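# step 3/5: fold
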Amino acid sequence: MRKNYEFVMTSLYGSQNYNLDTKTSDHDFKMAVVPSINNLILDKKPYVKIEETKNGIIEVKDIRHTFLSFKKMSVVDLEMLFSKIITTNKKYKEELDRLIAMRDEIVTSNPYKLYQVMLGIMISGSKRKYTPKTAAQSMRYYDLFDRYFVKNESFKSALDTSKSELYELIKNTKAGKVPEDIAMEKIKEMIATTKSYEDKIDKNINYETNQKLDLILIDIFKKRINEKETKTENMLRERWTKSYDSAIFGKYELTFKVYEEKDYFIIKIENSLTTNVYTVKDKFDTYDDAVDWMGHIKDNLIDVNNEDLIDLIQ
């Protein structure tokens, strides 16, 4: 099946980046994609989908959403820029090099929002039904807060939990070796400590960083559009499906589609029996001409062995 997006970058996220993975840990990835030109023109909803793999999941997200998440200081999305494994589309190398080069600037562009995200995840985890994994996540976000905001470590360094004084506590909590009551008491203390630091967090926002992100995103879409994708990714304008009953082949369906090319229209026919796709030889100057001829084929030339129909296709 043809995908309606193009891969831009993929990053590993999760326990491997924090050095909290085990032999049974999944390998999960976030993929930023640029949608098709047709999707942009038709103002379709930005693409977000979870795809399962043998070893984990891939979260496929429209790159517009990804960049918005950067501005909102989503830690799990910012992690994409610091991941141990980053795969990029060579076509967008220049834009992605600019993005990675400014990753520290992005993280520091809205300190108070970043602080709120970290605190929010700690609080949310403390209110959910207890699981070792959720408790460990709350602790890990406290560790990230403490080392980044209080101890002034770099964001990349603070992501690596193995360098933390809390590493054993977090690792053992995740493994279920810390009793629930003790873990929850620790988390309450961590939340209180984090809240007490609020007044020390810089409330300024660097809007210039957001503008730089916008320019990178614009350049990515310019590159996508300049490929003249409308030549190869035709816009579907009309679709009909009709059922037939052949004495030889039994019941089957033909699907008729009108596509708009750059300056003309074409007709394609899909056969449910063979999965073949046939293109009518004629090209049409107008949409109405193509639809009229498609109706003629559908209603008058459809016997699957009809030589008139065979002569029409290429």
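# step 4/5: annotate
The chain has 14 helices and nine strands.
# step 5/5: archive (pending)
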